């Protein structure tokens, strides 16, 4: 028994240590000025997708703890993350920082199209020149100028000063195109299903994902927790209500969380969070279903991913 407790305590201490390291790294992150914030946002979305794949198959808290560790490693490795604080200059080998310009003459369509246009203009220009070297030189000068506007052509300059604004924008627009379809967390849409099918509701004011939804009795629905992708994927503590086709913020959780579940019983919503310390929070409502109070009523023994909740009697065993 003593040994068990020792191991338990050591594990918990290790876990606490990880939390402290993460907090310290988060503080560091805040202080750094990072030039690749947009890439960081893309990267966090990719990490989250991997985390989702990892966590959805977990059946115990050890497994989900591993997924969280992988999530931390992934997030830290992102441009602007703890291991790459000032962005792509620190980690050029990160896939999102990698160079789309390597062998661009073979692989990069934007570059190839741009080059062909410049060659076409040059060809046209040379052919209408009288037999004077000055005119031909002028054609080549114009060709050079056109080339400078092509993506990748400034690669050498980019390599030495990756932060040059034009260079970064060029690289970034290409990245956006590549990653556009990974951005499955990037919407604020809400819809309602009735006998006639789905109809659109007003957009949610924030770009929140992995939240919990729960319906109240009187035609309203709550959105609890989640991560805010308009704000770098930050954990969310807000409680939102959708009522009369309007979204409004009605309160705050005591502990921000995501990938949890909520259930409504006797004018209280019970919210079981997923992220350490696995808080269980209760939201109390009055007769007119207005939020009165938020209380933390305990912790779960571990993280349960999107747990299924149902109402039962005390000490009931399935
Ligand atoms: C090169 O470009 C300039 C400015 O666009 C233009 O005035 C000039 O005629 C061009 N040169 C030739 C040879 O077409
Ligand atoms: C992204 O998805 C849309 C719709 O599914 C598709 O039409 C488009 O070609 C995709 N873009 C890329 C870059 O894969
Ligand atoms: C939604 O809220 C806005 C302003 O807060 C209000 O003008 C509008 O009437 C509300 N809509 C409904 C259907 O209650
Ligand atoms: C639901 O709304 C109706 C009409 O506004 C009201 O009479 C009723 O008391 C409400 N019930 C609850 C539980 O809020
Ligand atoms: C419920 O709470 C709201 C806001 O706190 C208050 O305005 C309302 O009167 C309360 N309803 C009842 C029936 O006490």
UniProtKB/TrEMBL annotation:
Instruction: State if Signal is listed as a keyword.
Output: yes
Coiled-coil-forming residues are: none
InterPro entries, alphabetically?
Gal_Oxase/kelch_b-propeller, Kelch-typ_b-propeller
* Keywords of the record: Signal
Report the leader peptide range: 1-26
Q: Which SUPFAM superfamilies match?
A: Galactose oxidase, central domain
What is the protein's given name? 4Fe-4S ferredoxin-type domain-containing protein
């Amino acid at each position: 028994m003593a040994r068990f407790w020792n191991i338990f305590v050591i594990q918990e201490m290790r876990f606490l240590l990880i939390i402290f390291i993460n907090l310290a790294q988060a503080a560091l992150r805040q202080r750094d000025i990072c030039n690749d914030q947009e890439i960081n946002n893309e990267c966090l979305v990719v990490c989250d997708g991997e985390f989702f794949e990892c966590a959805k198959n977990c059946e115990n808290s050890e497994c989900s703890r591993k997924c969280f560790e992988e999530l931390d490693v992934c997030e830290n490795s992102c441009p602007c993350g703890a291991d790459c604080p000032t962005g792509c200059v620190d980690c050029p080998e990160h896939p999102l920082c990698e160079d789309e310009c390597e062998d661009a003459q073979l692989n990069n369509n934007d570059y190839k199209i741009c080059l062909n246009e410049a060659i076409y203009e040059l060809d046209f220009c040379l052919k209408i020149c009288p037999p004077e070297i000055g005119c031909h030189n002028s054609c080549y000068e114009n060709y050079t100028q056109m080339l400078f506007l092509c993506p990748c052509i400034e690669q050498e300059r980019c390599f030495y000063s990756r932060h040059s604004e034009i260079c970064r924008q060029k690289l970034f627009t290409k990245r956006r195109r590549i990653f556009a379809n990974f951005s499955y967390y990037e919407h604020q849409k809400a819809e309602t299903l009735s006998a006639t099918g789905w109809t659109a509701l007003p957009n949610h004011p924030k770009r929140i994902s992995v939240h919990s939804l729960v319906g109240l009795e009187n035609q309203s629905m709550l959105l609890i927790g989640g991560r805010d992708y308009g704000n770098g994927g930050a954990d969310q503590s807000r409680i939102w209500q959708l009522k009369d086709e309007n979204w409004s913020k009605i309160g705050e959780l005591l502990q921000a969380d995501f990938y949890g579940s909520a259930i409504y019983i006797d004018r209280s919503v019970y919210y079981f969070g997923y992220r350490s310390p696995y808080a269980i929070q209760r939201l109390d409502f009055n007769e007119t279903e207005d939020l009165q109070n938020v209380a933390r009523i305990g912790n779960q023994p571990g993280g349960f991913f999107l747990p299924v909740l149902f109402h039962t009697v005390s000490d009931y065993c399935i």
